[in-house]
Amino acid sequence: AFAPAPSTHTTTQLNLWEQPSGNNDKDMSKALPFVARPKLLDGSLPGDAGFDPFGFGGADMAELTKQREAEIKHGRLAMLAVIGWPAAELYDKPIADGAGLPSLLTSSGESPSLLNGGLEKIYPAYWIQIILVAGIIEIEGMKMKEQKKDEYIPGDCNFDPLKLMPKDKKKMMKMQTKEIKHGRIAMMAVLGFVVQEALYGIPVVQETPIFFQPL
Fold first, then answer.
1. Which of 3, 29, 33, 166 is most exposed by smallest CB count within 10 Å?
2. What are the percentages of helix, strand and coil residues in the chain, rounded to 5?
3. Coil, helix or strand at residue 122
4. What sections of the chain are H helices per DSSP?
5. What is the pLDDT of residues 65-79, one digit of tens each?
6. pTM of the full predicted structure?
7. Cβ(141)–Cβ(156) below 8 Å
8. Which residues contact 143 (CB under 8 A, 6 or more apart)?
């Protein structure tokens, strides 16, 4: 009658995003091994390290795929921008002077942007071209999604003129992982350019010349 009740206890892993999971290593985040991964981030997507502290991935695979598509597109734009931004600051004025055209840089030599100003100097024809190209890319992406159905890969816009994408699935996964990682780094780099020039008011190629000028 006075026998102690059997004690029971369960162990759970710290989980920042989802319900607590068990001790299975496969359930743990690769980015933060001491917390459990979000349930949708099971490693099937390229570049998936089980890291989504703010829950941007959504609640289902449809939303996760949509967010991955957006991430890839932003990453591709950032990879172009991370080259174009310093290249403009280095070569816009010499090229413009040689062609007898006004430079499109700011008065301090920065690339035009929302924070730097100078966007009013950009010719309207440029913006029209950008919109047209973006529209064509989006239409191609929609076509690929409709044609390939379940075989559709997020970000596929039917554009690979150099045939860089392998046919083998493992090599394809590796190539896609490289792209998403480079895109993420590029997005951080462009953010750095924006903040750095907004704070210091000088071109990034002058602020950190070691990256942009010959030694």
1. 3
2. 50, 0, 45
3. coil
4. 61-99, 124-148, 169-200, 204-207
5. 999 999 999 999 999
6. 0.82
7. yes
8. 158
